[in-house]
Amino acid sequence: MAKIVDKAIWSIGPIFIGIAVLLLNMCVLAYYLVVFPYLHSWTDSSFFSKVFSILTLAFTLYIVYCIHFHYYMAIVTSPGDMEEYRKADDPSSSTNETSMRAMLLEMEEHSQFPNSCKKCLLPKPERAHHCSVCNTCVLRFDHHCPWIHNCVGHFNHRYFVLFMTYLILAAAYFVVSAWRPFMLCLDFTQLDWPYYFPRPLLAFSFILAICMGLAIGGLCVWHYYLIFTAQTTVEFYNNYYDKGVCKSQGEIFVNMYDFGACQNFKRFFNIGDTYPWYTLFLPVPIPPKGTGRVFEKCQEFYMLPEQRQRDHVKAQREVQDIEDLEDIKDL
């Protein structure tokens, strides 16, 4: 049954993308065909009013472009998988020896005996998890999102979060600026509607913006919490359980990837070292920090006794293995 559901989710992914693009651009048209002309009259306006209108237009176009750019990048950017290992096993590949040697060296940093996926039968780096919908292991896996027909992982998580951020900003701005045209479109005693955009669609766009802002706003706040605490959605539940175990044993739980809120934020968005902070506001491709196979550990983790360190890594592996076995049972 689970396999059927996974195939259905994968099959309807493009439909979800089409619906999302349609709804987004419907709200965009509602703003530029009704809200903007209602709020900014070009005729009989002062010089400063015209300048303000131009700046407002530029700002809204920037937000719209950022939304579409990051949504597109979240869709087309691979989150990171193990396909390189499959290619390395292909005898027709001319770079087999070099690529395999590099991969083994990376895996050796993680462990003397690299973990392997029970489904892929390929090396499984730390923080990677098998996605039953995509049927592959995903680097720093967070979740599978049907709205982007893709997993959210190491290489596209940044675009996914920024897409939600700009979308929430746009939804809030639309609701604040469109409430008067919204009330006007509900007044059917006024038969004269001077806009090309239909009244029912404007009302629907306004309600959609509220619902979308609240729903995606909650999801976005959740992801920023995960960013500041250096966790993925999967790791949050695992760490929550480990905290309870450590508390019952009188020990202190340490998230080995947590460098503090500020550093976690910089590491996630890859700013401060290679890329300056203002790249957060630029709709340009920015790769994540690291390869997604090996992750630096915090100092608090290395201050733990060696046995605690080994137990922590072992527990992480066991969780990965349990998830793989559960997927196998569902086949």
Give the arrangement of secondary structure elements.
Layout: H1 2-11, H2 13-39, H3 47-76, H4 83-88, H5 96-110, E1 129-131, E2 136-138, E3 143-145, E4 150-152, H6 157-186, H7 199-228, H8 233-248, H9 261-269, H10 299-302, H11 306-330
Antiparallel strand pairs: 1-2, 3-4
Helix pairs in contact: 2-6, 2-7, 3-6, 6-7
Number of H- or I-type helical stretches: 11
In round numbers, the mean pLDDT is: 85
Count of beta strands? 4
Give the topology string: H per helix, E per strand: HHHHHEEEEHHHHHH
Structural class: mainly alpha
Beta-strand percentage range? under 5%
Estimate the helix proportion, in percent. 55-70%
The description of the largest β-sheet is: 2 strands, antiparallel
* Widest beta sheet: strand line-up: 1-2
**Uncertain spans:** none
Radius of gyration: 24 Å
Shape: elongated
Tell me the count of domains.
2
Distance between the termini: 8 Å
Membrane topology: Multi-pass membrane protein
Transmembrane segments: 12-39, 51-72, 159-182, 202-227
EC number: 2.3.1.225
Domain Palmitoyltransferase DHHC: 113-239
Question: What does it look like?
Answer:
- This protein is mainly alpha-helical.
- The chain has 2 domains: 2-80 and 151-330, no CATH class; 87-144, no CATH class.
- 61% of the residues lie in helices and 4% in strands.
- It has 11 helices and 4 strands; from the N terminus they run H-H-H-H-H-E-E-E-E-H-H-H-H-H-H.
- It has helices at residues 2-11, 13-39, 47-76, 83-88, 96-110, 157-186, 199-228, 233-248, 261-269, 299-302, 306-330; strands spanning 129-131, 136-138, 143-145, 150-152.
- The strands form 2 sheets. A two-stranded antiparallel sheet has the order 1-2.
- Strand 1 (129-131) and strand 2 (136-138) form a beta hairpin.
- Helix 2 crosses helix 6 (157-186) and helix 3 crosses helix 6.
- The radius of gyration is 24 Å and the shape is elongated.
- The termini are close together.
- The mean pLDDT is 85.
- It is an enzyme of class 2 (transferase).
- It is found in: Membrane.
- It catalyses: L-cysteinyl-[protein] + hexadecanoyl-CoA = S-hexadecanoyl-L-cysteinyl-[protein] + CoA.
- Its main location: membrane.
- GO terms for molecular function: protein-cysteine S-palmitoyltransferase activity.
